[in-house]
């Protein structure tokens, strides 16, 4: 994988932001890839840096997919307790009585 494709893979996995107002993480990643490489850096060091960038992109992709799966298979995770009880009762065919305020 080239440096450019590793950079694009990282940007694809970061949350989208406005170009006029980039997140500090976007700025940091851009600065890392734009920084001039020392002439003494060997090809193995460059390939190691690219491999690390690919691993970070793969980790970010896995985390994004994990959150999507968690939301899909646990839809009540962000619900309040009352709403969760009401939906559980509805699932088994019961309606909770209306509560007076």
Quick structural summary:
With 101 residues, this protein is mainly alpha-helical. 63% of the residues lie in helices and 0% in strands. It is elongated.
General description of the model:
The protein has 4 helices and no strands. The radius of gyration is 23 Å and the shape is elongated. The mean pLDDT is 86. It starts with a helix and ends in a 10-residue tail after the last helix. Helix 1 (3-13) runs antiparallel to helix 2 (24-34) and helix 1 (3-13) packs parallel to helix 3 (43-73). The chain has helices spanning 3-13, 24-34, 43-73, 81-91. Helix content is 63%, strand content 0%. It has one domain. The longest helix is centred in the middle third of the chain and has 31 residues, at 43-73. With 101 residues, the chain is an all-alpha fold.
Largest sheet: none
Note the beta-strand portion.
Answer: under 5%
Written as H for each helix and E for each strand, in order along the chain, the element string is HHHH
Task: Tell me the overall shape.
Answer: elongated
Class derived from helix and strand content: mainly alpha
Tell me the number of strands.
0
Taking pLDDT < 50 over at least 5 consecutive residues as the criterion, the unreliable ranges are none
């Amino acid at each position: 994988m080239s440096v450019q494709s590793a950079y694009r893979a990282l940007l694809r996995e970061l949350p989208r932001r406005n170009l006029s107002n980039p997140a500090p993480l976007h700025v940091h990643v851009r600065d890392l890839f734009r920084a001039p490489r020392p002439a003494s850096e060997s090809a193995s060091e460059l390939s190691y840096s690219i491999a690390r960038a690919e691993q970070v992109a793969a980790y970010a992709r896995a985390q994004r997919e994990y959150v999507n799966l968690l939301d899909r298979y646990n839809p009540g995770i962000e619900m309040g307790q009352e709403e969760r009880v009401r939906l559980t009762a509805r699932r088994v065919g019961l309606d909770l009585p209306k509560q007076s305020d």
